[in-house]
Amino acid sequence: MNDSNGQQDDNPLLDMSGLPKFDCIQAEHVVPAIRELLSDLEGDFQALEDDVVPTWEGLVEPLERMGDRLSFSWGAVGHLLGVKNSDAMREAEEEMQPSVVVFSLRQGQSQAVYEGLLAMREGDEWGRLDACQHRIVEGMIRDAKHSGVGLAGEDQERFNAIAEESAQLATKFSNNVLDATKAFSLMLTDEVEVVGLPESWRDLAAQSAREEGDAENATAQTGPWRLTLDHPSLQPFLEHGKNRSLREKLYRSYVTRASEGELDNAPIIARTLQLKREMAKLLGYDTFAELSLSTKMAENVGVVDSLLEKLRVASIDFAKNDLAEIEALANASGNHEGALRHWDITYWAERLREQRYDYSEEELRSYFPFPKVLDGLLALAERLFDVKFAYADGETPVWHPDVRFVRVFDRSGDQIAAFLLDPYSRPSEKRGGAWMDECVGRSTVCSDVPGQARLPVAYLVCNQTPPVGDSPSLMTFQEIETLFHEFGHGLQHMLTRVDHGLASGIRNVEWDAVELPSQFMENWAYYKQTLLGISGHVETGEPLPDALYDKIVAARTYRAGSMMLRQLNFGMTDLELHHQHDPTGDESAFDVQRRVSERTAVMQPLPEDRFLCSFGHIFAGGYSAGYYSYKWAEVLSADAFSAFEEAGLEDEVAVRDLGRKFRDTVLALGGSQAPGEVFEAFRGREPQPDALLRHAGLA
Q: Helix, strand, coil shares of the chain as percentages rounded to 5?
């Protein structure tokens, strides 16, 4: 096998021809591969420092190649930690992570490279570069500053120690959440415990019991049924389970995940917040939020606060009314006693939705088998963006048999991209949630074919309800929205036309704008032609009836105030923790959570609520002081979709033309231009929040 430098090695992590060899990569490959790779990269980087040539070809391109080689191998390790987690892989990753962090800091803090970048910006080379290259170099200079290039002596040593410890804490946080989720399960054996649960849940719970090995003869009808904190098990139980005491047990277990014993993330949260504030101060910022926003579209914390407060004010009365309606139904039902508690909200909200809109989620799921939904989603993208998709399962190595491989082509028939889709929940080895990530990015410099850009390939990962027996996965509408969301991220990665790898796809895109394509795609899930195209009854193949479609659309704004407040609670808590909160003071992160909830929740959290202990977005992901990005970008996405509404969603020519324009701007330009410029290139003006409030029924 050959890597990009022509080295011979039997280690699949060093084979950089094509895509990662997931059918061969094992935990024992990680340490020797990453050690060898880092040794090679260290030599190459030292040679670069010894003779810096302050030109694009002499400095930026070599740095891109080095970064690409590391991200290919180390990225494959990180990906497997998310989708095929094991003790052996964790140990290998933990052993090598400090070395990877040290090398990354070594690059970021290189005075020779930094001075070379400054020389590029100040010299004749600058006039030779295009606007995209200018933006890349400016970003590299900023990132060098944020990597501590301006620090010296003890300050730089301390900065490096913080970076290493922070990386270790983030990995530990994520692993604790996965382990805590796996650790909880209840084997239900009495029919009274599962009264109200739909057949699909019973099928899945019985299958889970069989897979656990303690109930080989479990059936949907007779049990036993295995209840877990995995979303396909948790959510339906909270929505439909009539056994209130079990709902309470499930809810309390969920909001206290990873908050006690060896898996307690509370000390990690406190330490992480301390380290982030210390890092920010070393770099000259008062708070980590100020450091975070210095790289984002939003100008400052005050601008973000203003947007979130505007949305809060628009939502709060609607949310209060939501709760009052649910309480009224529960009290009038004759099947509820006492005050409404947290574990009652989802159950009675579902009863009210069924009563008001006259359909059940179970009825809806039958029309959305996953294969039909995926076919319909690809057909929508073909119509909007003038591309073609072709299933290519078996043509590249995958990490699990359920993973789909799909190639993307332009109208001429040339392949332009591909993606790997891992759709189903696997709680024993796969972390929760859903995400898109890069497998490889578009780049001319990193291509094996001179003069041609390497084609981008995306990972799309979901945790939807898995198939049961010979039946396909039947998707909830929330799972459909999630799939559309992640596919939107994938489209920006795959349909980029930027050949400079450091700004192609989602690279170099400000974090608070990166959710624009994903949330834009969610809007299409409510468009009639889309829903008809992705639906087909699992037994008859009949598309979604018009009457049921009308009910779905009518229910779109159901409890919109409550849903808006929930996201604002997350965003405002995140910002408060990283801006106003003093992690060395008497107030804990959980005190902050409760204080923010007084303004953003109509039912206050339980005293023992430790949701923050599983809030991986901000403690193990890239959303620290950036969770507001979902709402910031939703303003952009709703406004972008309103262009299609204004043109007429039934006007096929107008929709096609706007789809091409969206592809040519938002999807194609990647990080080559500032996101405000990209948005205006599509919309013809600055973004406005009116469409978001209108779509949510809060205008």
A: 60, 10, 30
Q: Are residues 89 and 190 in the same domain?
A: no
Whether 364 contacts 537, CB under 8 Å = no
What does the block give as tokens for 290?
């100020």
Q: Which helix (H) or strand (E) holds 463?
A: strand 457-464
Q: Give yes or no: residues 38 and 115 share one domain.
A: yes
Do residues 672 and 553 lie in contact, with contact meaning Cβ atoms separated by under 8 Å?
no
Q: How large is the C-alpha radius of gyration of the chain?
A: 25
Whether residues 207 and 243 share a domain: the answer is yes
Could you give the number of structural domains in the chain? 3
Q: How far is CA 110 from CA 93, 143, 501, in A?
A: 25, 12, 21
* Cross-strand pairs, 435: 461
pLDDT tens per residue, range 349-363: 999 999 999 988 888
Q: Which of 193, 481, 486, 522 is catalytic?
A: 486
**CB-CB contact of 135 with 673 (8 Å):** yes
CB atoms within 10 A of CB 660: 13
CB distance 197 to 241 below 8 Å: yes
Distance, in Å, from the CA atom of 570 to the CA atom of 593, rounded to the nearest integer, reads 9
pLDDT in tens, 162-189: 999 999 999 999 999 999 999 999 999 9
Starting from the edge strand earliest in sequence, which strands make up the sheet with 435-440, in order? 387-391, 404-410, 415-424, 457-464, 435-440
- Same-domain check for residues 247 and 294: no
**Residue 159 included in any domain:** no
pLDDT digits (tens, 9 = 90+) for 419-444: 999 999 999 999 999 999 999 999 99
- 91 in the same domain as 45: yes
Q: Which stretches of 173-239 are assigned E, i.e. beta strand? A: 185-188, 225-228
Where a domain ends, among 257, 282, 311? 257
Active-site residue, 522 included:
no
Chain centre distance of CA 246? 30
What lies within 8 Å, CB to CB, of 657 at 6+ separation is none
H/E run at residue 407: strand 404-410
Please state, in angstroms and rounded to a whole number, the distance separating the CA atoms of residues 201 and 199. Answer: 5
Range of the domain at 228: 184-257
Residue carrying the six token digits 């990972």:
459
Are 132 and 75 contained in the same domain? Answer: yes
Residues 207/468, Cβ–Cβ less than 8 Å = yes
Position 660 in a domain: no
Tell me the CATH number at 595: 1.10.1370.10
36: in domain: yes
Residue type at 526 in one-letter notation = Y
* Whether 354 and 236 share a structural domain: no
pTM of the model: 0.93
The long-range contacts involving 20-24, CB below 8 angstroms and separated by at least 24 positions, are 20/72, 20/76, 20/79, 20/397, 20/439, 21/397, 22/76, 22/80, 22/397, 22/398, 22/399, 23/397, 23/398, 23/399, 24/397
- Domain endpoint, select from 240, 257, 274: 257
For residue 226, report the phi and psi dihedrals to the nearest 5 degrees: -100, 120
